[in-house]
Amino acid sequence: MKPLWLAVAVLLGAFLVWRRRRLEPTLLVGGAIAVVGSAVYGAGLVQFPNVEELLVDIGEALGPWTYGLVAVMAFLETGAFIGLLAPGETVMLVGGLIAGQGRVEVLPLIAIAWACAVAGDVTSFFFGRRLGRPFLERHGPKFSISEDRLRTVERFFDQHGGKAVLIGRFVGLVRAIAPFLAGSSGMPLRRFVPYDVIGAGIWATTFIVLGYVFWQSFDKLLSYAGTGALALGTTITIVVAMVWLWRWMKVAEHRRQVMTFIERQERRRALRPAFRVGRPVVHHLRRPALFVWHRLTPGELGLELTTLTAVAGVGAFAFITNLMTLRRDAYVVGDQRVLNTAGRLAQDTALDVAAVVTNLGALPVAIAVVVLTSAVLVWRGEARIAVGLAVGLALTYLCVHVTKGALDRPRPASAVTGSRGSAYPSGHVAYAVSWVACAVALQRALPTVGSRFAFVTVGIVIVIVVALTRLYLRVHWLSDVVGGVGAAAAIFSICGIAALVVGFLRENPEEPARGPRTSPAPDQA
Predict the structure, then answer these.
(1) b/e string for 36-46 if b means 16 or more Cβ within 10 A?
(2) What is the rounded CA–CA span in Å between residue 44 and residue 103?
(3) Which of 25, 376, 417, 436 is surrounded by the most beta carbons within 10 Å?
């Protein structure tokens, strides 16, 4: 008999009974199975297999097929509502475990899960736009989507607005249906995608890294298993307390009681020094904290900020992933294949044209584009964005050359034209991203131009063309091109975020202190 497991069964069973009306059916069923399993094991009726050996067997059986399993599950979870039946976190954790065993690479696994999760969400989004809510009402029961569950998700959308796309990625029921409802409700795709990219990236990275770290520290976790029941009880207590406190503070009367209590404590002589130090700190942190929180809700500035954050996250991930892989191996997946394909397609005339077109990504050209765009921006009163462009190009130049010097990766031996220096990352492609950055800045500064979105399209086309010419001329590997785009996109996006935040803080000076309110304001939580 194992008293610890019996205690776990009792605590978990009591929690399920207490929260039975608020938990999803899948969680109730899974919790009930866990209670029965813990009780049976604790009573000594069965002996579970060795967990470590079982995980090793799973890793050996899947091997490279782990990439496919993670990709398919990440896509189907929302693209086909599979997440209602089998939560994708389980597969992400298993993928991380297998990566921890060294059978697959963890960073490519995260990239695959991230991309496929976004693809599944976008597919579900377009299904929702085409089929609408009546489709879920007619066919929802086949996927365990009842009318009550549908209303639960809709209430979640009503309460959180655009944040539901980001927050809902971590709520099982909401994650499976949210993209469909976003499409059926008419949410613009340009508003949906940035939040979805951020949410999917955080979700995939979190659970795969958890599985990876779990396996790397498996022996330590086993030694700490004796305190598992205490940790579980403590976690449940903290979570329940936080939820209760959040709901309690949503009531305006309760918030007034808290403020009255704080003011009463502030008058006490012993606590007065602490309040004198703490109040200015809270006062100065309150405004930036509210700014970040409100930007989570899609709006004009919120959408721009979220989009730039999504681009920065994807770009930084691409750059760092390739950099870390190249520190261990000579090539990244696809490097040799793309180089061989470029060699087979080589023609003298096309090579001469590519040698000329590739100069669109040369540093002098990028400097000229940034200078001209900055002049227009200053003329339109957008000096801070002009400074952001200049700083972005300077930091991109610094990043490219520092990375080249640190990595010192040789260029392909079959290069058509002469090139100097290290290969990773591609400087031409990185500098070409300045075309897109300038196009986005001009789109913001010239709102009256009807075809301003054409600026961005032309910028993206230039980046793609420069990237293709670098590969066609065989002066760079595929990973060099991807790393160059990722580094520049991340840097320019971060500079854009800084320009937006500075502009917002300067154009919205802090409001003067208000007098005490005589009546409670409507609850905006």
Answers:
(1) eebbebbeeee
(2) 35
(3) 436
